[in-house]
Amino acid sequence: MSILIQSSEDTVTFQLPTTFNCNCQAEFRQAYEKFAHQNLKSMVLSFRHTEYIDSASIGMILVLREFIRDKLNIKENIIEIEGGSDYIQQIFKMVKFEDLFYVRS
Prior knowledge:
alpha/beta
């Protein structure tokens, strides 16, 4: 499954695949870079259908955060993480993503 994208004027949602790992890196980067010139207020990463993530996934999300801060010059958090199995939610808690992003189950 590929990354599915839904966008409106100021929000873009990325529906992430069942397995979100290092094999998704190029597609993920290309997906968010498409919106670099859009005036975004919210970027949603939906893990509703995702069953597996690895450390590369965590890194990709952190690189996205840097991209937003450094390349788009948006200093406030606009990234929302939603959904995900108990397994994925546990990983987000272990890496303290709630301190960096809006995390909703």
